[in-house]
Amino acid sequence: MDQQDFDSLLPQLRLTRRDFIATTLGGGFALAVQPIMAQTVIQTDSEGLSAGFMQIPVADGMLEVYRAAPAQGRKLPTVLVISEIFGVHAYIQDVCRRLAKLGYLALAPNLFARQGDPAKYGSAPEIHANVISKVPDAQVKADLDALSAWAAHNGGDAGRLAITGFCWGGRITWLYANHNPAIKAGVAWYGRLRGDVRANTPRHPLDQADNMQAPVLGLYGGQDQGIPNADVDAMNAMLKAAGGKSYIHVYADAPHAFHADYRPNYRAAEARDGWQRMLAWLKQHGV
């Protein structure tokens, strides 16, 4: 698969304020992240793609998934895209289309549907209290198992399966890369590494750093107020001691969510560099 340079895509992805009305754009984003930083939002069109929501069967019903892929092609390298706590809103959908433009089958599942809709809550604490705290890791892994199996029979290549995720999805990326032996590589964007041990969250990335199965690249901000540098250092030390096939790259001056182009935290240079590192990591590991 040709690896197009992300910079070459920017002219067709980036829109100015004149190109859209911010209030209209905001309709595709979760309530808790309003107002949108409209001047920096990247929008990727669907030209040449098959993109949209669909449903796939899982153990207890149907799972909603945003799918983006080249309109033509089969046995595509596949990336599971795991959202932040805000769900599969416009930003996550756009990430899928960016990957699809590069030849991937990108799949972003709605992993919170049974517990609630994070898009309707006005703040992150409300989302955590009403939705996220009720989502069991076991449920998430089972849904991703079903999605991985579905992809292998619906345009994806079972031998080229990867996962990436942002914030909450970054934590899931670490966990799922250690759960599914079919995962060839993972890229975790600023996912929490340590947490309380509860029924729904019995293990965290630091609990398994000494026994990672698939190689994971972590992309973290040195100014992240929610993920202590000490946790990142501890994770990196454990990964190195275990053989070093996974590691965390730290952007010293970047805050949390530096890839999220719709938020004030967005840092264009670090986001662009991280995207290139992600593509190189996937290519290095055969995805």
Topology diagram in text:
Elements: H1 6-13, H2 22-26, E1 49-58, E2 61-70, E3 76-82, H3 90-101, E4 105-109, H4 124-130, H5 137-152, E5 156-166, H6 168-177, E6 183-189, H7 205-208, E7 216-221, H8 229-241, E8 247-251, H9 268-284
Parallel strand pairs: 3-4, 3-5, 5-6, 6-7, 7-8
Antiparallel strand pairs: 1-2, 2-4
Question: Which features would summarize this protein structure in a list?
Answer:
alpha/beta, Rossmann fold, 8-stranded mixed β-sheet, 8 strands, globular, disordered N terminus
How many domains, as an integer? 1
CATH topology: Rossmann fold
Helix content: 25-40%
User: Which strand order do you get reading across the main beta sheet?
Assistant: 1-2-4-3-5-6-7-8
String of helices and strands: HHEEEHEHHEHEHEHEH
Largest sheet properties: 8 strands, mixed
Which CATH top level class fits? Alpha Beta
Describe the structure.
The relative contact order is 0.13. Strands 1-2-4-3-5-6-7-8 form an eight-stranded mixed β-sheet, with helices on both faces. Strand 6 (183-189), helix 7 (205-208) and strand 7 (216-221) form a beta-alpha-beta unit. The model is unreliable at 1-26 (pLDDT under 50). The protein is globular and about 45 Å long. With 287 residues, it is an alpha/beta fold. The chain has a single domain, classed as Alpha/Beta hydrolase fold, catalytic domain (Rossmann fold). 32% of the residues lie in helices and 21% in strands.
